[in-house]
Write a structure and sequence with these properties.
CATH superfamily: Formiminotetrahydrofolate cyclodeaminase monomer, up-and-down helical bundle
Mean pLDDT: 94
Structural class: mainly alpha
Distance between the termini: 47 Å
Largest sheet: none
Number of helices: 6
Radius of gyration: 17 Å
Shape: globular
Strand content: under 5%
Number of strands: 0
Amino acid sequence: MTLLSELSISNYLCSVAEKKPVPGGGAVAAIVGAEACALQAKVAIFSSNSEITPIVESSIKTQKKLLELAEKDSKAFLALMKAGRKSKNYEELLIEAARVPVEVLRISVVQVSSLKTLLKLGNLNLVSDIGISALLLISSIRSSLLNIKINTKSIESIPEDILLAELLAEKALKELESLCLKVEDEIH
């Protein structure tokens, strides 16, 4: 299977739309987060403040990690399908499948501080890109939450690290919504 990161955008979209199990929503959530990071890097590159320089490298590194997680999500889902519901380790596989979107969520949450910095110190000619990055992160986080819930709905004892993801997401989503409002104020 060709790596998602090696596909053209058109081929990636066709791959998502195919009648195949992967890539699915988990991979898409990770890629949406990667797109948010790409926009952050763009804003940071066009900004002259030295405090923003580390955001370029960090955003590019995070973007690559999210693309890796898109692949990991597909592999986890395929392992789950291959094993089947009657498999002895099915619950373990569900937990592993849930841990991928937890990681996507955590990485997306970390990006909030970069966006705040960009809004405060970045090139405001690209303020809409900051807002779009925030909206993409909201989508990545909410999508990850859906994937966590679908993978854990039949698990009797959900590991604490997975349960904590929802609390982490709530705070970040509020901050991102607030940031979006600030972006809109900047535009008006």
